[in-house]
Amino acid sequence: MTGASKGIGKGIARVFADKGAKVLLASRDLAQAESATAGIRASIGAGQGSASAVAADVSSEESCTRMAGTAIERYGGIDIVCCNAGVFPSARLGEMSAADWDQVLDINLKGTFLTVNACLPGLRARGQGRIIVISSITGPITGFPGWSHYAASKAGQLGFGRTAAIELAPHNITVNAVLPGNILTEGMEALGADYIGRMRSAIPQGRLGSVDDVAYAVLFLASDEAAFITGQTIVVDGGQVLPESHMALEDL
Hints:
Elements: H1 7-18, E1 22-27, H2 30-43, E2 50-55, H3 61-75, E3 80-83, H4 98-126, E4 129-134, H5 148-168, E5 173-180, H6 186-189, H7 193-201, H8 211-221, E6 233-236
Parallel strand pairs: 1-2, 3-4, 4-5, 5-6
Helix pairs in contact: 1-2, 1-8, 3-4, 4-5
């Protein structure tokens, strides 16, 4: 699990560990990953899964290779890969630099490729596997000012995933994506109460999503019951992308 030290990644890791999985939490910040791991260990019951932390920069091929090796060394193999690491700094066109663009694409999109590539030998050795990419509604479905680089990276993840699904199908490895809408995480809270209120008003269910809403969608795609699903997307957004305009919500 990449990008697992906080937010959606930490929530996914907790749900998987609670269901019995052995989870490796990867983050550029080892201290944060270890803190998240300690919280997961404290929350899961005896006889359930386990969790440990590793430092990893998904934009580095060497770091991803080391991360995959750590998973095999600690747990004996790799069954499920969840590509969640991502950044979303805001910069509008005309102000965005090439370095701004490269940072986001290197982590969000190239990081997905490098993570999958590094974990492939472990997945193939098992004879089956699950890869779940955490994309977003922003890019594949919607847009938002200041996030053209983020949107491009998230749309790119889906293009990558569809082709990867074809290539890996003969190895009994599925590749699917979850597209969260506005999920209440630390990152969302940092955008302020006004932003959160306006986002909430655009969601038919009248609330922001929880990390568990995303985590259980990922859990399904990682299950045996989802073995014949590949190259697909699940939108987890409370219906946010459905209204034609705010007028469609006025009578609700």
